[in-house]
Write a structure and sequence with these properties.
Blueprint: H1 16-22, H2 25-28, H3 32-48, H4 54-72, H5 85-97, H6 99-102, H7 111-147, E1 158-163, E2 166-172, H8 173-199, H9 218-224, H10 234-239, H11 242-268, E3 276-277, H12 296-319, H13 334-356, E4 359-360, H14 362-368, H15 376-385, H16 390-407, H17 416-422, H18 436-442, H19 451-466
Antiparallel strand pairs: 1-2, 3-4
Helix pairs in contact: 3-4, 3-9, 4-5, 7-8, 7-11, 7-13, 7-19, 8-11, 8-19, 11-12, 11-13, 12-13, 15-16
The structure holds arginine (ARG).
Arginine binds next to helix 7.
């Protein structure tokens, strides 16, 4: 016997080269508590089916508890000769309770249904952590939005809204920040959807691929591990990894959503924009340039989005055209998504800290908001309210911009006389929309940037976040 899980039909042990290639304990050892929980549930199922005496059952559970305690105490380690976490834990269990009892645990299960099941449990735990962290970021954005919404005696902060990165129309800073919060909220929604789908499908009981013949009840194991149901198809149960790819997608999307905000923070922190100052504790300096204050957190967020996309792409490439059922290729499913959750779990708290402590220069933003003729649409829409067809109004407002460019002034700098020359419809009343404040206040349809609507939007967001 080679001492392996599969020693019986082999005359000699594997070559060191094969062992080195095959070994996965350096990354799957972190599944130990999940493997032990699965084994505990499986021991219970064996006992219920009469395949394990009460005494053996008790002894097995004791052995598993001992391994759990040793692991928690940092005293449990795989051997270099262990292929994977399942093999290592079986070896250690046999050492603890002996072959006669320990050797009974493997009946009716395979590493194929084991790994598919406990990988799900592991990812569900981490998806919950990530979801809570994303909600913290949403909270930070909502907090900043609230702080800049104005109120009784304060004006709301207005900024240049952009399309094509060019000044487009003034918007409330709060409105813009919340535009980053909504996608994040949808990501949390996606995690919840994903979780419900995964919860319905515990693969334990699928065996290697064809199911088990020992009369075990897979719903017992499923319930004990927090699932609501077990796999309807044992081949699917052991070979499907769309749950991994789907989570890798959601984590990549979170990375992408965070990177879009990151990019803006990087721009906003430049001298040219001058919109934000980063808090000292959430920014870094330069080893040579004493004046530097760098947005490293935002840059790392932008960079890590690429890594998260890479994890998804690599995983999908592994899964593409893989025949049913289990293939060893599937061992490649773990590292990318482990990396994705680990990456987000360190990135998100730092990113949230940076956002929560950003100091916005409201005056600078307000000063720039009406520049670049960003009120031209307001002129056109004001004309429409005076019953001018929009086509004509657009032309007239465009003529105003042309005149301003000739004179090198902004729209509000045109005199009553100059407005009248452009069009008799342009009475001095047009000035009521020629301020950024007037402009944002006028956009009061649902979802618009008027302070009254943005206040409603913030309430809606907070209520939605609370329900997740
Ligand atoms: N370590 C493997 C994996 O992560 C599970 C073991 C299945 N191995 C096997 N030869 N059937 O996918």
């Amino acid at each position: 016997n080679t001492g392996k899980l599969w020693g019986g039909r082999f005359a000699g042990g594997p070559s060191p080269e094969l062992e080195a290639l095959s070994r996965s304990t350096h990354f799957d050892w972190r599944l130990t508590p999940y493997d032990l929980a699965g084994s505990r549930a499986h021991a219970n199922a064996l006992h219920r089916s009469g395949l394990l005496t009460a005494a053996d059952h008790t002894e097995l559970l004791r052995g598993l508890d001992v391994l759990g305690e040793r692991h928690a105490g940092g005293e449990l380690h795989p051997d270099p000769s262990d292929e994977d976490v399942h093999g290592a834990l079986e070896r250690l269990l046999l050492e603890e309770v002996g072959v006669d009892i320990g050797g009974r645990l493997r009946a009716g299960r395979s590493r194929n249904d084991q790994i598919a099941t406990l990988f799900k449990v592991f990812l569900r735990d981490h998806a919950r952590v990530v979801a809570a962290q994303v909600l913290d970021l949403v909270d930070a954005l909502a907090g900043q939005a609230r702080a800049h919404l104005g109120g009784e005696d304060a004006e709301p902060t207005i900024m240049p809204g952009r399309t094509h990165l060019q000044h487009a129309q003034p918007v409330l800073l709060a409105h813009h920040l919340l535009a980053h919060a909504w996608p994040l909220l949808r990501d949390v929604d996606r995690l919840a959807d994903w979780d419900a789908r995964v919860a319905a499908d515990s693969p334990y009981g699928s065996g290697a691929l064809a199911g088990q013949s020992l009369g075990l009840d897979p719903t017992l194991v499923a319930a004990e591990l927090g699932f609501s149901g077990s796999s309807a198809n044992s081949i699917d149960g052991t070979s499907a990894r769309d749950f991994v790819a789907e989570l890798a997608f959601v984590t990549a999307q979170i990375g992408i959503d965070v990177s879009r905000l990151a990019e803006e923070v990087i721009l906003w922190a430049t001298k040219e924009f001058g919109f934000v100052t980063l808090h000292d504790s959430w920014s870094t300096g330069s080893s040579i340039m004493p004046q530097k204050k760098n947005p490293d957190i935002a840059e790392l967020a932008r960079g890590k989005a690429g890594r998260l996309i890479g994890n998804l792409a690599g995983l999908m490439a592994t899964l593409k055209a893989l025949p049913l059922a289990y293939n060893r290729d599937l061992q490649e499913d773990k590292e990318p998504v482990f990396d994705s959750v680990d990456t987000l779990e360190v990135l998100l708290p730092a990113f949230t800290g940076m956002i929560a402590t950003l100091e916005f220069d409201g005056e600078r933003m307000a000063e720039l908001a009406p520049q670049g003729f960003s009120l031209a649409t307001d002129v056109a829409e004001w004309l429409v309210r005076q019953n001018v067809p929009f086509r004509v109004a657009h032309e007239v407002a465009g003529a105003c911009v042309r005149r301003c460019e000739e004179l090198d002034v902004e729209l509000a700098d045109l005199s009553d006389e100059q407005f009248r020359e452009i069009s008799p419809e342009l009475t001095p009343q047009v000035r009521e929309v020629l301020t950024a404040g007037g402009s944002v206040a006028s956009r009061d349809g649902r979802g618009g940037t008027a302070p009254v609507r943005v206040r409603e939007q913030l309430d809606e967001l907070v209520a939605r976040a609370g329900g997740l």
